[in-house]
Amino acid sequence: AQTVTQSQPEMSVQEAETVTLSCTYDTSENNYYLFWYKQPPSRQMILVIRQEAYKQQNATENRFSVNFQKAAKSFSLKISDSQLGDTAMYFCAFMNSAAAGGSEKLVFGKGTKLTVNP
Amino acid sequence: DTGVSQDPRHKITKRGQNVTFRCDPISEHNRLYWYRQTLGQGPEFLTYFQNEAQLEKSRLLSDRFSAERPKGSFSTLEIQRTEQGDSAMYLCASSLPRGRGAVDEQFFGPGTRLTVL
Fold this sequence. Notes:
The complex is a heterodimer.
Chain A: E1 3-5, E2 10-14, E3 19-21, E4 24-26, E5 32-39, E6 46-52, E7 60-61, E8 64-69, E9 74-79, E10 88-96, E11 107-108, E12 112-117
Parallel strand pairs in A: 2-12
Antiparallel strand pairs in A: 1-4, 3-9, 5-6, 5-10, 7-8, 8-9, 10-11, 10-12
Chain B: E1 5-7, E2 10-13, E3 19-24, E4 31-37, E5 44-50, E6 53-57, E7 65-68, E8 75-79, E9 88-95, E10 107-108, E11 112-116
Parallel strand pairs in B: 2-11
Antiparallel strand pairs in B: 1-3, 3-8, 4-5, 4-9, 5-6, 7-8, 9-10, 9-11
């Protein structure tokens, strides 16, 4: 079974600084997807960024980028120019790809609580 | 379309009572998922529907839990004889048919917070 590990329960960063959240995962599959989801306090979960395992190029979405190391099974999230609105729980998640024919469920890590300080 | 909606947002019940939650997915999303999130944890998968067919159930879904999606649109999750350990946030998510969306993105609802006294 796939597992996702987030080793940083809490992190904090100053506004406008850069922060990196760590995620490692375990799978025997070669094709899969990885996601970072953001869950603000008392608000619903939204997708921040996604990465297909077959793509070597790291995904970027504005201030958010990932460092995907397939061999190391590592998928970290970098947030540049941190803003107060980035304060939230961040969850790393894994999903088998359609090609792999596996389950379509998301497997989540326990999350990292990020606080952006003014 | 305003996204995935869930009702109620909060439910307080006494141990032993039955509760039912509803999820309305984004229109055109034929896949619907239920997850459970306890305090300090990430969401855990419960079950998944493609149209009206329930294709996968987690071992977390005990006999007291049942989910339906009778017409392939909204879904209900019922918990019978609730226990204090059932207290959690129940999240619903939906997604487009596989291959049509961007990398199988799941869109989440606001959740139903269940408290069992």
